[in-house]
Each structure stands twice: as C-alpha cells, then as structure tokens.
Design goal:
single chain; 11 helices
C-alpha cells in the first residue's frame, strides 16, 4: 500500500506540471476515493465512500405520524378459545365421520339423499351428528354476537355475557320451534311428515354450522377495518340455507298431497311468524335499553 501511495503521489506531482495520461487517471480515481478527509466536527476521520450514521431521534420529523392499522375489537381471548374448541370438535367429526359430512351436504340439495338418510337413520352417525349440533349452536351464536356488534345494537350486556344471551336465545328458539312442529304434527295427525321435516331441519343446521366457521373466524380476526363483505356473505349463507329448508318442507308436504292453502297456513304459522316475533322482540329490547 505504501508503494502505491508513493507512485500515486508521483503521478499527482507530475500532473501538476503536465497533462496526466489515461492510465494515470484510471489509477488515480480509486486511490483518491480512499483518501482520508480532515476531521471537522468529529474526533474520528471519515472516508468519502463510508456511510454516515445519524441519530434517528434528531433526524426524524416529530410531526410525522404513520398510519396504524388496528385489529377488530371482537377477537377477544374468550372468542379465540371458543373458536379453537369448535375447530377441535369439527376435526374429530371430520376424522371419524367424513362420509356423514358428505351426505349432509348432498342432502340439502338432493331430496333423494335426504329421504334415504331419513329412512335409514344410521345410528352409527349419532355421535358425529351430536357434535355437529354443538358446533352449530356455538358458531351460529357467535355469528349473532358479531352481527349485534357490527350493527352497533346497544345492549346492557357485552362481551362473553352478550354471547351467553345469544347462545341461550338460539337454543330456546330452535327448541321451541321443534316442540311447536311436533305439537302441530300431533294435532293434525301428520307426525311422519313432521318428523321428516325436523330431520331435514337438523341437517341444514349442521351444514350451516360448518359453513359459518370460516365466516365467523374472518369476522373475528380480519385485519381490515371494513367487515361489510364477510357480514353480507354470512347473511346470504344463512338466508340461502333457510330457503332451501323451506323449499324442502314444501316438497315433503306436496308429496303427501297437502292442499296449497293448508301448506301456506302451516309455514306462515311455524316459520315466518316466529321470525317476525323475534325481529320485533329484538328491536323492542334495543329501544328499551337505549
């Protein structure tokens, strides 16, 4: 290195008296970049090709505010554990009764499959069916809980307490609906048709519980501020499955040669009237708490 410095100093000295050659310029440029500048305000000299470290506290503008994206507030700890529990139950059903799950999805769109399942009533699937019932009540209640938070319906209860109310309300609604169907079937002496319809009701509920799992998970853990799309998807799924159930009930009763007027009164009493009552009850409760 000292020999190179001596040669380059000679080149500089010669360059002061005459025009340097191209080879001398080629050797001079990298050598000049390595030279040390005299220190100005620092104790350590600094090279031209060396990066300078700065203090971020003195170089960053204090008024600069970066946007912060917050996760949705619904993904509380209890909800995370609840969804994990639901996934574990579903995993056990998927591992032990995968054929039953396939038949369930086929039964809601294929009447012959549903009729065959109703005739056979394979009790080996009863454990899987019970677990899917648990999944439905847990998941559907979570979806109701998320809808209440999304539409900002004010209740005195909140968090897991509100979810307990949603779970209890869902259970009482479907239990009361099934008891009412059985009573009407006994009253009008059509218990076999009622049993077949309730069998299809249970099947659609189990399918709804499985399909709503990704929807409620997206609503709980989505990093996006707007949740309109998953909410709309969830509502459309529930509405589509519900109308498939009503259409299945119409098919069951028409095959038994029920009159159209009797069919209309039957479903208005047992399907649409309870929904109207629940709708009115919810908004009366909201108006009372506001």
């Amino acid at each position: 290195m000292n020999g190179i410095n001596t040669i380059m100093q000679g080149i500089v000295a010669e360059g002061q008296s005459q025009q340097p050659t191209t080879a001398q310029v080629f050797l001079w440029q990298p050598w000049q970049a390595e030279q040390v500048l005299p220190a100005t305000d620092a104790a350590t000299p600094q090279r031209w090709n060396e990066l300078q470290l700065v203090n971020p506290d003195t170089s960053i503008n204090k008024d600069l505010v970066l946007p912060v994206q917050h996760l949705n507030s619904d993904n509380t700890t209890w909800l995370s554990f609840l969804l994990l529990f639901v996934l574990l139950i579903f995993a056990t059903v998927k591992a032990g009764w995968s054929k039953y799950i396939q038949n369930l999805f086929q039964s809601i769109v294929n009447y012959s499959t549903a009729e065959r399942m109703f005739r056979e009533r394979n009790y080996s699937f009863s454990h899987g069916a019970f677990r899917l019932d648990v999944v439905f009540y847990l998941v559907f209640s979570v979806f109701l809980f998320q809808l209440i938070n999304f539409f900002r319906l004010d209740f005195t209860a909140g968090g897991y307490t509100l979810y307990i109310f949603c779970l209890a309300g869902t259970f009482v609604y479907f239990l009361g609906k099934k008891l009412l169907y059985k009573y009407m079937g006994f009253l009008f002496e059509n218990t076999s048709e009622t049993s077949e319809f309730l069998f299809n009701l249970n099947n659609t509920n189990r399918v709804a519980g499985m399909v709503l799992i990704p929807v409620v998970a997206l609503l709980a853990f989505s990093p996006f501020s707007s949740l309109k799309i998953p909410v709309i998807i969830g509502i459309l799924i529930v509405a589509a499955i519900y109308f498939l159930l009503v259409f299945r009930g119409v098919m069951i009763l028409l095959r038994k040669q029920f009159s159209i007027l009797y069919l209309f009164l039957y479903f208005c009493t047992l399907e649409f009237l309870p929904l109207v009552l629940v709708y009115k009850l919810l908004f009366d409760l909201v108006g009372k708490f506001n």
